[in-house]
Amino acid sequence: MSVQSYGSDLTVSRSYSTRDYTRGDASGMFGPGWTSSVGVEDAGVDYTGLTVAGSLVQLGLPEGNSIGFTVKTTTGTGKTLTPEVGVDDLTLTYTVAGDSYTLADLDGTVVTFTKPSGSALYKPTAVTTPGSGQTTTTSWETATVAGAPVTRPTRILAPVPAGVTCGAGTAGLLRGCRALAFTYATGTTATGGAEAQWGDYTGRVGKSP
Fold it and tell me: Domains of the chain: which residue ranges?
């Protein structure tokens, strides 16, 4: 799915694992076997999040692998981290104020990671594309699905023209605001595989009305 906007286009794609149908991403937004990719088309950014364990930080990729960073220097205001061998084009810094990580590449793309309420992971919440200074933001929520906490995207907001302020949710999408919004089913209505039996599954993206 792609939405054109004033700035960078918004994209959401998914892929299915035929070898392991139980495999899927942590959000579970499309169900077992499906891996979602929430990114910014012009920037080619679709990182899944950051996992922090002591001085080691892992940058998650859609395929399930990751890129490792280790703390290089620490100050009262933050940290600088060094990437693993072979990915020297990436720099990662941590800022105490705001509890956020900032990832930058040689092209000038900057991704900000913050920790949504209730989440153990840092998720990508802002992407600024090189040259334009335009920023795409992603909102997240943590919900309980099948007794387990799940952090999932709720809205991707495209860059807006100067002078335009977009509020929260879909109600805040004024003229000049473009976004992809996700709503999740609170109950299961699907009863089978035939078209007449299609419906929603609890915790997954709800079907369009």
Answer: 2-197
Find, among 147, 125, 137, 141, the residue nearest to 177 by Cα. Answer: 137
3-state secondary structure of 196: helix
Residue-wise pLDDT for 139-196, tens only, equals 999 998 888 888 999 988 888 877 888 887 777 787 878 888 888 999 999 999 888 8
Residue 202 corresponds to which amino acid? T
Cα gap 108→21, rounded to integer Å: 37
pLDDT tens digit sequence for 32-45: 777 777 655 555 66
DSSP 98-162: TTEEEEEETT--EEEEE--TT-SSBEEEEEE-TTT--EEEEEEEEEEETTEEEEEEEEEE----T
- How many other C-beta atoms are found inside a 10 Å radius of the C-beta of residue 8? 22
CB atoms under 10 Å from CB of 198, counted, come to: 12
pLDDT on residue 168:
79
Distance between CA atoms of 112 and 52, rounded to whole angstroms? 15
- What is the rounded distance in angstroms from the CA atom of residue 172 to the CA atom of residue 166? 5
